[in-house]
Amino acid sequence: MTHNELFALAFAAASKAYAPYSNFRVGAALLCDDGTVITGVNVENRSYGLTICAERTALTTAVTQGKTKFTALAIATPDAQYPVSPCGACRQVLSEFVQADFPIYFGSTSDNIIATTMGELFPFDALHELKKQ
Ligand code: THU
Fold first, then answer.
1. Ligand 1 pocket, residue 94 CB under 6 Å
2. Is 55 part of the annotated catalytic residue set?
3. Mean pLDDT, range 80-104, rounded to an integer
4. Looking at ligand 1, which residue's alpha carbon is closest to its atom 13?
5. pLDDT digits (tens, 9 = 90+) for 27-66
6. Distance between CA atoms of residues 65 and 71, nearest Å
7. Is residue 131 predicted with pLDDT exceeding 80?
8. Which domains are present in the chain?
9. Which pLDDT score is estimated for 61?
10. Where are the alpha helices (DSSP H) in the chain?
11. Ligand 1 center to residue 15 CA distance, Å?
12. From the CA of 42, how far away is ligand 1's center (Å)?
């Protein structure tokens, strides 16, 4: 799957966002190593701080389905005039599952996609001394 195809799935997913407070829809599409794609949207709450970003919705849905190995992530923010990158919390959560060379694509439309990596978005990643069991 090309990154443009993955972005198109993220863009389509954004239409399902639950964002009545910000009116800022976000869609994420996570390509799993088995070739499947898991999408996610932002889910807001009237207790604003409980909002879940599209990226974490996709990631937790994937893990729920037994998928923990990923190949790429695309994020679409159709309500922005420019590409919007993942928030700091999502960068930390994603870093649990992917390596520094993991590709991340984000754009507001298909003609302004920025290609980056986990390592570029989250340098000096730490806490690896906390070994997984
Ligand atoms: N949001 C995401 O879902 N992902 C991002 O990368 C940026 C922010 C959501 C959270 C909130 O519902 C809205 O966008 C405005 O911040």
1. no
2. yes
3. 97
4. 24
5. 999 999 999 999 999 999 999 999 999 999 999 999 999 9
6. 16
7. no
8. 3-132 (3.40.140.10)
9. 98
10. 3-13, 54-64, 88-95, 118-121
11. 14
12. 6
